[in-house]
């Protein structure tokens, strides 16, 4: 939240007045908390050995305003630089963002420019994420990137399974995937949307069993991730405080040494985040901004 206030204050100095923000419920902050957990461990393990890149395929405008209080928090593209973390000893060498909405991409470019350590190393591609995936191997090769962390955060079913196969087969990467759980059961049973769900889920979704629900869909998706090499994964529930929810799926390749950042970070992060909901973030925001008492 402190980082968000800082980005908001800096944004007010931009030539463009009132650049857009991404305004959603408090629960939006939870996925960014998870990303904040992930980044230092990823960088501290891989960045000393090679150049690493951060890839955000649904980047947005770079600043979120969440909940009724419109609390500013950095958008996912800015988390690695805007959130200061004493555990983070290294940095990304390249930032690659995909954003098709012109107002969002322009706002993101302006906000990236507020961070000198980031601006010269950032590429914003104003094309559909499924097309950007095809460009990514060439970009990584051009900048001698050895590995990348890819955040896949669509609002719905926009990211196709074929694109997931492409990015995993053609790049060395770890993934953090937003799985749109709410509504997927309805979409599985709706003839007008079932083809979109199948394109998202991949193999095994050709024949949807009677009563297929979000648990069936998540397990199929994780099974498919394992088949293409991302055989270490879990799902972390993001709760809004109402019926709306979704899951985050971090997915990596198992190595002969195991996956230390996965084993050490995600179980604890899962435990913490699944105790929370968007309502709790709203309470915390009130406590910070209104100097109320703290939670026990």
What is the end-to-end distance? 20 Å
* Rg from Cα: 19 Å
Helix/strand/pairing class, anyone? Answer: alpha/beta
Q: What is the number of helical segments per DSSP (H or I, 4+ residues)?
A: 12
According to CATH, the fold-level topology is Rossmann fold
Average of per-residue pLDDT values? 89
Q: Class, according to the CATH hierarchy?
A: Alpha Beta
Strand content: 15-25%
Shape: globular
Tally of DSSP β-strands: 11
Helical content stands at 40-55%
What does the main sheet amount to? 8 strands, mixed
Order of helix and strand elements from N to C terminus: HEHEEEHEHHEHEHEHHHEEEHH
Which residues form runs of ≥5 with pLDDT under 50? none
The domain count comes to: 1
CATH structural architecture: 3-Layer(aba) Sandwich
Explained architecture:
- The protein has a single domain (2-181, 235-285), classed as Rossmann fold, CATH 3.40.50.
- The protein has helices spanning 2-11, 28-46, 79-82, 102-112, 116-119, 129-142, 161-170, 184-189, 194-201, 214-227, 260-275, 278-290; strands spanning 22-24, 52-56, 63-66, 71-74, 94-98, 122-125, 147-152, 173-179, 232-233, 236-239, 245-252.
- The strands form 2 sheets. Strands 2, 5, 6, 7, 8, 9, 10 and 11 form an 8-stranded mixed sheet that branches.
- The radius of gyration is 19 Å and the shape is globular.
- 39% of the residues are buried.
- A hairpin with a 5-residue loop joins strand 10 (236-239) and strand 11 (245-252).
- The protein contains 12 helices and 11 strands.
- Helix 6 runs parallel beside helix 7.
